[in-house]
Specification:
The structure holds two protein chains of two kinds. By secondary structure, chain A is of the alpha/beta class. Chain A has two domains: 233 residues, no CATH class; 105 residues, 3-Layer(aba) Sandwich (abc type-2 transporter like fold), CATH 3.40.1710. Chain A is built from 14 helices and four strands. A four-stranded mixed β-sheet of chain A has the order 2-1-3-4, sandwiched between helices. In chain A, strand 1, helix 3 and strand 2 form a beta-alpha-beta unit. Chain A starts with a helix and ends in a 6-residue tail after the last helix. About 3% of the residues of chain A have low confidence. Chain B is α/β, with parallel strands linked by helices. Chain B folds into two domains: 218 residues, Rossmann fold, CATH 3.40.50.300; 78 residues, Alpha-Beta Plaits (2-Layer Sandwich), CATH 3.30.70. Chain B has a six-stranded mixed β-sheet with strand order 6-7-8-3-9-10, with helices on both faces. Chain B has a four-stranded antiparallel β-sheet with strand order 2-1-4-5, with helices on one face. In chain B, strands 12-13-11-14 form a four-stranded antiparallel β-sheet, with helices on one face. In chain B, helix 3 runs parallel beside helix 5 and helix 4 runs antiparallel to helix 5. Chain B starts with a strand and ends with a helix. The chains are: A alpha/beta, B alpha/beta. Chains A and B meet through helix 1 and helix 8 of A and helix 2 and helix 3 of B.
């Protein structure tokens, strides 16, 4: 047992004596979560919207007033014709324009219908879509009041959308679980594999293997420090999420911790596997970066929803542990789900952990190649 | 246990893809002796060391250390040997003391418990105990590595090219230390590319391209040298070599630093006739002297 303690102590020395490693392990998670939480967000704030139409029209004034009060939209300029919109969008002076038909109010009063056109910048489809939907929302609510005031209360059928769990469409609800998965995986698999491969490369593993310490204990003592650091990171991410990002932990904290622990276990297994395969630190880094981090970012549902992927990619995404972890974290943190509703994902992830750890420990060479 | 076999190697073969690193190696190393494995780079020294230290597996053949088979008994061997790899294999970012403590603990002992074993060497680097291993000089790194290999009182010590890249003074010191370690009853197997270190071993084996070309005590090997040998000094070495190579009765001439060693058949030319040959071809001022063969001459003779 003393041997293992000495090993773990030595491993911590390696981590804290190398400033870059310390930085990666302890500072990067905090920076990432803050970056994703604040800077990199899919929400659109203060999008400028131009109005084409007669400013004197009561309906136009109604819409202008709502845009002024909307916290996501900002009023741009009044334009005389839709042809001016193109130039303004191209120069980045506005995000979108609402074009009212000529003599909008008169037509509406006479015929009961008048058309509004929304022009937005398709070069940036994501934001365009979001801004358009904001504008639609504004117009829809105005239409209701307009039409009700005009026709005396006959209400058209109108869907009432209610977003459960995340009424404000806060994007950190999506990013916090994703980034948590990404960081835990990065720390566990990349740092572990690099630290083992470094010993291979420096030849220190040669000497350690000649010692009477069983390879299993060598592996265990290599993994323990990164397990501990993951716990630290998990706690700091959670604190940041709750107190800075306003992401709630609606479900049980104990269950969330258990899920995280199992995910960390499977990531450590992955790291060990990478270290068995690669013989240089560069290979290990590349394997972790391209082979683990990229697929995790792309396919775990962190950026692109899994449901909209081609079937082949969906199947591939099923073997990524982070996918299951992120699903569970969302369910526990945001939906407040209990054990029964995540039992399937938990089972899959536990299976992955057991397999990865078993397989890589079995493959770990007790001799040099 | 004196007189018994500490390391036994029988018919060991090892190949890496096309390269035959070791071919039918047979060795027997007795308890308490310094056994030298002498050969140039790439001869297979490290491959043999790795097999004996249970770090790699032979393709065929058997080997045992302290009576334990290197394959089946590897766990037992790992408890009773000390190993110093050919490259510096300690943790560069740990200090001298931390490295030593780490290896002591990993081998199930403490520095204090075995301080006697390493005192002789450790006392020379103890003043730098807080210095990081990466900041040590070559000679000090060597001493630290030796301390780490010795700290658990091994029965057998494997030293793979311990003196490569170490200055002449440190090399001499190092061999003196090995002598004292041997006196404490440790069997030492050491490899080196330096022929002049051969005479410091009790017994040696010459290895070349994966084959043992001769083995025995250094004196035995030298006494088996079959030819008369002359050293020639002065003059243009290149011309001397060129002139003598084609001459009858001369088996071989090879340059040894600023000398040229000439192996001559029994009825070949003697010192004065060699001088004649050189003077006839216009090379004045050379000195020719009959010499005793060294290990290097034997090595060249056998290769």
């Amino acid at each position: 047992m003393k041997e293992v303690t000495a090993f773990i102590k030595k491993e911590f020395m390696h981590i804290f004596r190398d400033r870059r490693t310390t930085l990666i392990v302890l500072v990067m998670p905090v920076v990432q979560i803050i970056l994703f939480g604040f800077a990199i967000s899919t929400e659109v704030h203060d999008a400028k919207v131009d109005i084409v139409g007669d400013p004197g029209d009561p309906s136009v004034q109604q819409v202008v007033r709502s845009i002024r009060h909307n916290r996501y939209l900002e009023l741009g300029e009044f334009l005389n014709s839709p042809s001016e919109v193109n130039g303004r969008i191209r120069k980045g002076q506005t995000m979108a324009a609402i074009c009212f038909e000529d003599r909008f109010d008169v037509k509406l009063a006479k015929e009961g219908t008048a058309s509004i056109t929304i022009i937005s910048d398709g070069a940036d489809p994501n934001s365009a879509q979001i801004v358009t939907s904001y504008i639609k929302g504004v117009i829809a609510s105005e239409q209701f009041t307009v039409s009700s005031s005009m026709t005396g209360g006959s209400q058209a059928m109108r869907p009432n959308v209610q977003l459960m769990y995340n009424p404000a469409m806060n994007s950190s609800y999506n990013f916090v679980p994703g980034v948590m998965g990404l960081i835990l995986m990065l720390i566990c698999s990349m740092m572990t594999s690099v630290s083992i491969v470094r010993e291979k490369e420096m030849g220190t593993l040669e000497l350690v293997l000649v010692s009477p310490v069983k390879p299993f204990w060598i592996i265990l003592s290599k993994l323990t420090p990164y397990l501990v650091l993951s716990v630290v990171n998990f706690i700091s991410i959670l604190l940041l999420a709750v107190y800075v990002m306003d992401v709630p932990v609606n479900g049980s904290l104990a269950l969330l911790s258990l899920v995280a622990l199992i995910f960390v276990g499977s990531s450590l297994g992955l790291g060990l596997l990478v270290s068995v395969i690669s013989s240089t630190q560069q290979t290990a880094m590349l394997l972790c970066g391209m082979g683990l981090t990229m697929p995790t970012m792309m396919l775990s549902g962190l950026i692109f929803p899994c449901e909209s992927m081609p079937v082949a990619l969906q199947l591939f995404s099923d073997i990524i542990p982070a996918k299951w972890f992120i699903i569970m974290v969302k369910k526990i943190m945001i939906q407040g789900a209990g054990l029964t509703s995540i039992i399937k994902e938990l089972g899959i992830l536990s299976g992955m952990m057991v397999f990865l750890l078993w397989f890589s420990i079995k493959k770990f060479k007790t001799r040099l190649s | 246990m004196d007189g018994q076999t500490a390391i036994k190697v029988e018919g060991i073969c090892k190949s890496f893809k096309e390269t035959k690193a070791l071919q039918d190696i047979n060795l027997e190393i007795k308890h308490g002796e310094i056994f030298g494995l002498i050969g140039p780079d790439g001869a297979g020294k490290t491959s043999l060391f790795r097999i004996l230290t249970t770090l790699s597996l032979a393709d065929s053949g058997k080997a045992s250390v302290n009576g334990l088979d290197v394959v089946d008994g590897y766990a037992g061997i790992r408890r009773s040997i000390g190993y110093m790899p050919g490259h510096f294999a300690l943790y560069q970012d740990l200090s001298v003391e931390e490295n030593l403590n780490f290896y002591a603990t990993v081998f199930g002992t403490t520095v204090a418990e075995n301080y006697d074993t390493i005192k002789d060497i450790y006392s020379q680097i103890e003043m730098f105990k807080d210095r990081k291993a990466r900041d040590l000089s070559g000679g000090m790194k060597q001493k630290l590595a030796l301390c780490c290999a010795l700290v658990h009182k091994p029965d057998v010590l494997f030293l793979d090219e311990p003196t490569t890249g170490v200055d002449a003074v440190s090399r001499k010191e190092f061999w003196a230390m090995l002598g004292r370690i041997k006196d404490s009853g440790v069997t030492i197997m050491v490899s080196t590319p330096y022929m002049d270190e051969a005479s410091l071993c009790d017994r040696i084996a010459l290895i070349l391209a994966g084959k043992i070309i001769d083995k025995g005590t250094p004196a035995d090997i030298i006494s088996r040298y079959p030819h008369r040998l002359f050293a020639i000094r002065g003059g243009n070495m290149f011309r001397i070599l060129k002139e003598l190579k084609v001459h009858e009765g001369i088996i071989r001439c090879s340059s040894f630093g600023c000398e040229c060693h000439v192996a001559v058949t029994d009825n070949g030319p003697d010192a004065s006739s060699l001088l004649d040959i050189l003077e006839k071809s216009g090379m004045q001022g050379c000195r020719v002297e009959a010499i005793q063969a060294g290990i290097e001459d034997c090595f060249i003779g056998l290769s």
